[in-house]
Known about the structure:
The structure is a homodimer of 205-residue chains.
Chain A: H1 21-36, H2 43-50, H3 54-60, H4 64-89, H5 93-109, H6 115-121, H7 128-154, H8 164-185, H9 188-200
Helix pairs in contact in A: 1-2, 1-4, 1-6, 4-5, 4-7, 5-7, 5-8, 5-9, 6-7, 7-8, 8-9
Chain A binds a DNA duplex (18 and 18 nucleotides) through residues 21, 42-44, 52-56, 58-60, 62-64.
Amino acid sequence: xxxxxxxxxxxxxxxxxxxxxxxxxxxxxxxxxxxxxxxxxxxxxxxxxxxxxxxxxxxxxxxxxxxxxxxxxxxxxxxxxxxxxxxxxxxxxxxxxxxxxxxxxxxxxxxxxxxxxxxxxxxxxxxxxxxxxxxxxxxxxxxxxxxxxxxxxxxxxxxxxxxxxxxxxxxxxxxxxxxxxxxxxxxxxxxxxxxxxxxxxxxxx
Amino acid sequence: xxxxxxxxxxxxxxxxxxxxxxxxxxxxxxxxxxxxxxxxxxxxxxxxxxxxxxxxxxxxxxxxxxxxxxxxxxxxxxxxxxxxxxxxxxxxxxxxxxxxxxxxxxxxxxxxxxxxxxxxxxxxxxxxxxxxxxxxxxxxxxxxxxxxxxxxxxxxxxxxxxxxxxxxxxxxxxxxxxxxxxxxxxxxxxxxxxxxxxxxxxxxx
DNA sequence: GTCTATAACGAGATAGAC
DNA sequence: GTCTATCTCGTTATAGAC
Lengths: 205, 205
């Protein structure tokens, strides 16, 4: 007799409820923020895509600020899972940086802006808890990169002037800017070229 | 007896009409787009700041798209005037690049985002003529930078791998990204450090 | 050229039935 | 949990007086 929380062989999809409503809302909302911005989409847009009513959305997320916060939290969670996966799979610092840049490229291939880059542009108009989450996301990115940079400098695979922290910031801003500018052209190559050049400038001796 | 259009010693301010209404609208609108985004401000915001009614704004700019187009045109005009001034005052390529970065820094010190960087983020939601103007602005920036880079490489004051065009794009995206990320922190130093590092990587042999 | 007044619509949000 | 119905407010935009 299965105890509570015991895993079974039956995958969640067998529930005939592929994804709970809350998760589907977050998925659609995330994409809309990345493509149109937080000020560029409405509850009606989300409801329309999910064929449900605005009122139902408000049951799951009472205010748009609640929805926005949850979108960032989900995004950040997945992003840092991806960074943990990179840490688990790769040890060579330059390879980690390439994998990091590839995360951005994947977002751009989906015709989206980095969620937090988009929200950074809209910073002055978003709810304050969302602001804090954006800054936290950027800080955590820099910390992860700084650790990689420090490691790479130590083993000679990377070389750069200044602190690892400052260089980490240059990487974040360089990649965010490359996404920002590449998107109006619909040209992922623009991003890839800029990213390649940016990482090449950190090549070890 | 003064002929038409002949210049007088009386400055325009003596007209007791310091700036025509149209120009004041554009000035306020420009700042609002740079701070809050095109989707983040309304005719009511502009009207409020100028102590006039929304209806009067519509007399000067029938639609918000008209206003947006005019804002970009004015901004681009002033920006390229500034580039022409740089060309007139400086010949050393690295000095020109520093002056170029300083234009960005000045915008950021005013707590604004680059107009076209902001509109690049909102790209998918802005009127099509505004989109074209944004891309044109980016193209013209790259052209100017590419010319400076080409010149600097020729006289040995600059050194970089790849074409001047690709490197120009890296500069634009690097500076735009540095602005984007620095603004949530309200920290101009973040931008300055990133810009310095970016330009230093182009130092000549 | 600026105003009052208002139209027409979409936004975020709530009440209450099912 | 999802719906219908509605509220309130803000938005872009227009008509017409001054």
